[in-house]
Amino acid sequence: MIITKSRDYKDIVKNLKKSDKVSIISCNSCAKICGTGGEKNMEKMKSKLEKDGFKVVSLTLIAVPCNVDMVESSKKEVLGNKIVCIACDAAIHNLKKIFPKKKIIEALYTVGLGAFTDKGYISQVREFK
Fold it and tell me: Quick check: 3 and 112 in contact, CB under 8 A?
């Protein structure tokens, strides 16, 4: 699995204008397991953005956004001109292919490869540089 960490909220919103129509896409696999993605974190991001005066026009939870076919099948759900992506770099890559005219804003850092220990914890086995 891929290990991710959240970017600072200020780094995300500096790429947005109040006039933007924002879509949020979140990973429901690795990022969810890491506690950085999934529906809960997508809803938190929506609440923060709306509280700060940004217009969120769509939320899309994708099971595995590193799979280009899954991103493609969710294409009609993604509205607006900017996408806040709560997923790894592979998902970012796919979003840029599927939505070449939309600005993609990374909400997570992709930090490494992980594995589950025998006790069910996630252990980082390789750091990405």
Answer: yes
Walk across the sheet containing 108-116 and list its strands: 2-6, 108-116, 122-127
Place of tokens 């980082």: 124
- Domain ranges, residue 45: 2-127
d(CA 65, CA 68) in angstroms, rounded, equals 7
- Residue 6 sits in a domain whose CATH number is 3.40.50
pLDDT mean values, one per 10 residues, the chain (129 residues) = 97 98 98 96 98 98 97 94 98 97 98 89 88
User: Which amino acid is it at 68?
Assistant: V
| Euclidean distance between CA atoms 108 and 7, whole angstroms | 5
Q: What angle do CA 5, 44, 40 make, to 5 degrees?
A: 75
